[in-house]
Amino acid sequence: IAGITQAPTSQILAAGRRMTLRCTQDMRHNAMYWYRQDLGLGLRLIHYSNTAGTTGKGEVPDGYSVSRANTDDFPLTLASAVPSQTSVYFCASSDSAGLTGELFFGEGSRLTVL
Amino acid sequence: GQNIDQPTEMTATEGAIVQINCTYQTSGFNGLFWYQQHAGEAPTFLSYNVLDGLEEKGRFSSFLSRSKGYSYLLLKELQMKDSASYLCAAMDSNYQLIWGAGTKLIIKP
């Protein structure tokens, strides 16, 4: 089934540890995004990539990094996790960078930093 | 600044009609989106409006007034499975989506 796969589904992490959230899509979409979703707040964009080989900063990029070595994969890394990074993380993709706007989301990764 | 406002929670009765409002302020405007998100799941696309007026898609309709910075999502013949959060998002001049916090819709029998 075509779509976006995120891993892990959930993770409990000690503060200061490094963590990579994986995201893979098989729809050959050019654009990919990482959002975090916190209770009472709208989805907030962390980083995005309009095409393989390029990345950009979103609204809340601090403490996170991404890479886009190929079309399908867009991992998000927390270099040194802090409790404020406890959140649900969604990876998403679209078939053109913003022009249509319809995003396809992964099922989310629930991260708890203690 | 950029801002999206929508009610936090609404309650409606099965079989009835409910309207979820959204107001937006963005730097430029390239369209208004509605997504549905069931608890513990990913958001899924419902509708996109870029021109003024009403777009109907089955039991769901979405309306846009660009001059008023206003949109609504209309759900008819409510079913229990419609219990979910409804996310409003406006696309700004840089084609970035600005998201509201979502409206939790509770359907009662």
Description:
- The complex is a heterodimer of chains A (about 110) and B (about 110).
- With about 110 residues, chain A is an all-beta fold.
- Chain A is about 0% helix and about 45% strand.
- In chain A, strands 2, 4, 5, 6, 9, 10 and 11 form a seven-stranded mixed beta sheet that branches. A four-stranded antiparallel beta sheet of chain A has the order 1-3-8-7, with no helix packed on it.
- Chain A is globular.
- The N and C termini of chain A lie far apart (about 35 Å).
- Chain B has about 110 residues and is mostly beta strands.
- In chain B, about 0% of the residues lie in helices and about 55% in strands.
- Chain B is built from no helices and eleven strands.
- In chain B, strands 2, 4, 5, 9, 10 and 11 form a six-stranded mixed beta sheet that branches. In chain B, strands 1-3-8-7-6 form a five-stranded antiparallel beta sheet, with no helix packed on it.
- In chain B, a hairpin with a 2-residue loop joins strand 6 (about 55) and strand 7 (about 60-65).
- The model of chain B has no long low-confidence stretch (mean pLDDT about 95).
- The interface of A and B includes residues 43, 44, 45 and 97 of A.
Quickly describe the structure.
The complex is a heterodimer of chains A (114) and B (109). By secondary structure, chain A is mainly β. Helices cover 0% and strands 45% of the residues of chain A.
